Amino acid sequence: MPKEKTFIREKENTNLREPRRYKVVLYNDDFTTMEFVVMLLMKVFNKNETEAETLMLQVHHSGQAVVGVYSLDIAATKVQKATQMADEAGFPLRIVLLPE
Question: Is-above-0.90 flag for pTM?
Fold first, then answer.
């Protein structure tokens, strides 16, 4: 009796995608100082002084600005750190992450 041959075909996963990215958005308010926002952008979001001042002015004039785009974990960590620093300084800074 001849032996039957069996073949195993491996399935390749070709549906690979880049992970979703998230925008960190900073909103204007009437209480948080411009100096604090610049310091926060430099410390938490690693902006140089010129970038931080430009973003702060955009927030001030437009009401909001995207201050960075990151993976979910990094965006959430930066939002948490910035919110904590604002709370500790007594500022009602509003900063959120939104899907890109």
Answer: no
In a structure prediction context, what are the per-residue pLDDT tens digits for the chain, which is 100 residues long?
566 777 677 777 677 888 899 999 999 999 999 999 999 999 999 999 999 999 999 999 999 999 999 999 999 999 999 999 999 999 999 999 999 9
DSSP string, 7-61: ---PPP-----PPPEEEEEEE--SSS-HHHHHHHHHHTT---HHHHHHHHHHHHH
Both tokens assigned to 5: 């041959």
DSSP 92: -
Reported as type and span, the H/E element at residue 98 is strand 94-99
